[in-house]
């Protein structure tokens, strides 16, 4: 098991026979915030926001999602279907003896967060999405060439075995170069690559994409309107997603606020950790007023 800093704790949660390593910060009696990472990360991508959340009076929980880091890596793409990932969220909520949590997701973790808010709204008190796409919005946007050419890797990942070989060669050189192109530091890149370094982790991470693609084709997850208060934080320098995807599709999210951070990339919580933490704390501690409030960081904020 990889080392966890002394100001964090760990707990293992079981979900359908899969053990999920969860790292926590803050007092367990405080309101719980569950943070879901994307590719190729692990729990540690949330290290800085977790410390800020804990200092603000929240109990921050960040798992290594199934297939990543020190969590179990079941065999077969079907083990990573969106429904199983949502079941993992439910298991973590139960494992920490909660009824509802504030749910935060980045990248593919944001997709799991959107799915949970649609399928299991009973688990979610508030939702925050960082540079991730609502499934309905993505289905519409990917019909455009501008987004299709950015999403080439999704189709590449459908090929058996070749993506695993290509991405892992020369100590994940391609992955490292892509992250460096986003402006991430060498330390952050090393930390992110740890999410897919352990045995079978890269294969499992790519199986997420395979399972998600075919689930989308089959419409395995029912689509439903999201009514919980939702914050979208968007790094405007995202190289992988069209800017239009920051806006939740009209009619599918009833209460959303979108905040753009102009200097940030897809890795908005790494590029602007203080701003992201402040926005999360403001949103999660809000009294639930429908009207959006101006951001203290001077960024654009509006209703969606």
In the CATH hierarchy, the third-tier topology is known as Rossmann fold
Question: What is the number of helical segments per DSSP (H or I, 4+ residues)?
Answer: 11
Distance between the ends: 42 Å
Instruction: Give the helices and strands as they follow along the chain.
Output: EEEHEHEHEHHHHHHEEHHE
Overall morphology: globular
- Taking Cα atoms only, what radius of gyration do you get, to the nearest Å? 18 Å
Number of domains: 1
Taking strands numbered 1, 2, ... along the chain, how are they ordered across the largest sheet?
1-2-4-3-5-6-7-8-9
Main structural class: alpha/beta
> Helical percent range?
25-40%
Number of strands: 9
Q: For this structure, what is the CATH class? A: Alpha Beta
Q: Can you summarize the main beta sheet?
A: 9 strands, mixed
Residue stretches low in confidence (pLDDT < 50, at least 5 long) are 288-304
* Average pLDDT score: 91
Strand content: 15-25%
